[in-house]
Specification:
The structure is a single chain. With 745 residues, this protein is α/β, with parallel strands linked by helices. It folds into five domains: 98 residues; 98 residues, Beta-Lactamase (2-Layer Sandwich); 200 residues, Heat Shock Protein 90, CATH 3.30.565; 136 residues, Response regulator (Rossmann fold, 3-Layer(aba) Sandwich); 113 residues, Four Helix Bundle (Hemerythrin (Met), subunit A), CATH 1.20.120. 58% of the residues lie in helices and 16% in strands. It contains 23 helices and 17 strands. The strands form three sheets. Strands 6, 7, 8, 9, 10, 11 and 12 form a seven-stranded mixed sheet that branches. It has a five-stranded antiparallel sheet with strand order 2-1-5-4-3, sandwiched between helices. The protein has a five-stranded parallel sheet with strand order 14-13-15-16-17, sandwiched between helices. Helix 5 runs antiparallel to helix 6 and helix 8 runs parallel beside helix 10. The protein is elongated and about 200 Å long. The chain starts with a helix and ends with a helix.
Amino acid sequence: MIKAKRADKEELIFTLNELAREKEEKKKLLLELNSAKEELAFQNNEKGKRAAELKIADTELNFQNKEKEKREIANKDLEAFNYSAKLAAQYARSLIEASLDPLFTISPDGKITDMNNASINIIGRPRNELIGTDFFNYFTEPGKAKDGYKQVFSKGFVADYPLTIKDHKLTDVLFNGSVYKDGQGIVLGIVVVARDITKQKKIETELMEAKIFAELATSIAEDAKSKAENATRIAEDAVKAKQQFLSNMSHEIRTPMNAIIGFTKVVLKTELTAKQKEYLTAIKISGDALIVLINDILDLAKVDSGKMTFEQTPFKLALSISAMLHLFETKIQEKNLKLIKEYDENIPQVLIGDPVRLHQIILNLVSNAVKFTTYGSITVNVRLQHEDQNQAIVEFSVSDTGIGIAANKIDKIFENFQQASSGTSRLYGGTGLGLAIVKQLVEPQGGTIKVVSKLDEGSTFSFTLGFQKTKFDAEPISMDIELDPETKKIKILVVEDIALNQLLMKTLLDEFGFERDIAANGKIAIEKLQTKNYDIILMDLQMPEMNGFEATAYIRKELNSNIPIIALTADVTTVDLAKCKAVGMNDYIAKPVDEKLLYSKIVGLVKKTMPSNSIVSADIHQSKKSKYIDLNYLNRRTKSNPKLMMEMISLYLEQTPSLIGIMKQSLKDKDWKSLHSAAHKMIPSFSIIGMSVDFEEIAKKVQEFASTQQQTEGIPDLMTQLENACIQACAELEVELTAMKNKAV
């Protein structure tokens, strides 16, 4: 038991020891735990510090990044600025180097700091040797150069300061300089440009020499002037003599031609056989061609300069050729020659061109052939060379078996007053103008003429002309004039001294139904005017006692009369036409008189001087008519061809509204050129569809106002009348066209 107690005691001691040990362990653990808590608190404190440091570091990092971005932007801006500055410097340098004049920059102490290549070239030393040297030493007068340099600093600039550079040729320059400053306005130096005036100096010297020579030449010029004045007087006298000669020739030639052509027209209106009418028509056509030819011969300057006008009218080529050849039948028979006509039937029946000019060409060529042919034949060949939808090219040739032309003369025969030999004129006559005129008539129309010839065998003259094709028929030669019944009471005084012309004018005016009196000269005309009233005067110019100019001047100034006066002139030179206007004549008609033109001018002038002093209102006249149109003329013109009539009416209906629209818009825009053009295009249509002549006069008045831009305030009223009339005419034509179409079906 003691043993057991001992064992329990030992176990208790062990347990107590174990408890003490555990207690000690717990105490240690508690100490370690306290230590750990302190460490943890320390660590937490350190973490807080590190977190604060990290926050500060992060803020610093953000700041550094922003500063870096700013530096990068600043660097880029600096680079861009430096690049721009570099470009500006290069541009400035290029401008400086582009100057051909020497340019320097100089410091305030007179040293060269920079220069351009022109400076290097003119001084002849490299740039590195020039920089830093005294600017003044490069001039022939250094002191003068220094004074100019000082003036730049004192004034801020200097202009055109003369100096001479010491180079291999001593170049004269004008010194121009100005100061340059930095951004704060501090003067850094001056810029100098030395403009080379060597050429100016040379020019000044030459001018001085020229002045001396001019003074010496003045006396010579004065002598030459007096000689020139004498020559001018001689030339002016020659021109006056030529003009007087042409005036006299024009009058002398035209006066008999007036009667020939006038009475031919009168006879053509009488009962004739077909052959008589054919021959008389040929005479009339040839007379017309001869008048045009006379015009051209009397105005050689017009021929030589090629300033001819060419008509574009429908005509029948075959009839024109036949009419021309009729003229030569008698002469050819007298010379026992044979006339051969070869005509290509493929040529369109009606062509558009200038038949009168064509007659002149044929007349000259056939006349030449007849003149220079004593035996054999003359062949006139007309053939179609080419044809397309719009145009026909026709080749004409006149061949003969006459004397021929030498090869060395062929190139000259188309020149004025040239013939094949000096004996040609003596043996055969002529002026040598015929072929020159032929060439001047062919080439301006786009044609060509050539000749093939051999001495003693004959010649062939050939030429080509282009003609426009047309669907319309050629207007027949008609002596009839559509007379206005309201004009039959017109009283006319004819002042004419030649009995034959008096008879012709009586015949024409009687046909017009006018009352007429005849006065043999201006003096008798004035006496008649003082005892009787007339509506218009037809005044010849060249008369005894008192000529037409003197009579007109007296009527205007002494009698104070505004009666219309038309000059009847055989002289159509510019000088006399201007004189007609100057003395107060209203218009002129060239002899031979065209009766249609004579009638229209008489009626037109008389209507203008009616009491209303204006054109008779077309609306008033129209109220007397049931319709605005009369297709009788169109019916005659188309030979009652319904297809052609419908085509022409359709064309009128197509173009008239657009022309009216153009005229109204042109008037609104004050586009006088377009208004004039549209009115001009409209005028021919009135007669075609049979509208009153008053509408044609209105359109002419609009055209006249548009041309002169005077009295334009009257155009709107005239335009209203035209528009109303054309609208009504179109409505009536629509009805007629519909009826024609229904009839054709």
